[in-house]
Write a structure and sequence with these properties.
This protein is mostly helical and about 325 residues long. The chain has two domains: about 170 residues, Glutaredoxin, CATH 3.40.30.10; about 160 residues. The protein has a four-stranded mixed β-sheet with strand order 2-1-3-4, sandwiched between helices. Helix 2 links the parallel strand 1 and strand 2. It starts with 13 loop residues before the first helix and ends in an 8-residue tail after the last helix. The structure holds glutathione. Glutathione binds next to loops. The site of glutathione has 12 residues, from loops.
Length: about 325
Amino acid sequence: MTGTAAAVASPVDFGRYGDYTVKRPATPDGSFQRPVYPFTGRITADGASGYPAEPGRYHLYVSLACPWAHRSVIVRRLMGLEDVISLSVVDPVRDGRGWAFRDGPGYTPDPVNGFTLIRQAYDATEPGYDGHISVPVLWDRRTSRIVSNNFPDITIDLDTQFGAWAAPGIDLYPPALRTQIDELNERVYTDVNNGVYQCGFATSQAAYDAAVARLFATLDDLDRRLAGSPTTPTCGPTPATSTSSQRSARPRTSITSSATTSAPTPASTRPASSRPARCWTGRPRTTATACPAENARSQPHLLRLCVMITSVLWRFARRKVVGGVGCVSSI
Ligand SMILES: N[C@@H](CCC(=O)N[C@@H](CS)C(=O)NCC(=O)O)C(=O)O
């Protein structure tokens, strides 16, 4: 892109394009079912996967509003791969078109392909793709397609396959700890990362209550782990009795004002007076935000969950940097 102005998406327009919605299949019990994300290529140091680790070849598209994308951003930085894998950031606010490239504080036009919408990357990879348009996206300049939009794989590959270019002496996925890391990752993925979606997108009170209990039990357990005095197993199910006093002290939230109502109310249809002036990304609120939890009526409570989760992720990362004990693969 030389000489001419970089292409950007037209401004966010909820009136014209509607709110962004996460497509989800209806489930009999009202629980949130995460769709399968189809791009799962792997980068390998020896190239056996078809995607060899090479400097300057791969690009990460991320949103800073997305906790799933954060860890690829964090790992890239900790591994010292900023000159090896390029990165660009999309606008944190989405209308019905999904993640888009605009020029603004902390986000830019697409420096690689000149796309205006992330969906163009998906369409270039699989013409006619009509599944989820999510971030992070790991893009291959050589084949002009998405390698992966699956953050656990992206994170592990950055950790393990770019040793030739990584900062010396850093190993975020030491072989001796991989079993523990994988177990913890599985738990954090299931009960925290996806846990907040299970709260925000539950369409029955029972599914919501179960998801909230699971999420807070896990956060309590992770808190203890981070405090350095684990009193319960750090992997596997949390004993039901371990945190009951803390849990009972927390306000209980109902997913709907009437337990018989089944669909969450979109953020944009809630009265403005019930919503904070700024969304959790810090941007002035327009009519919707990137926070999935805000799609539920229990928004204030769930908004806190979003913030808490982000803070837990950062504490994991900080622990690695400061104490050198944890492993970033676990965030
Ligand atoms: N498959 C992705 C999921 C990440 C994800 O859910 N990202 C959210 C933003 S925090 C997103 O882009 N969601 C859009 C959608 O699922 O339609 C991964 O595991 O990396």
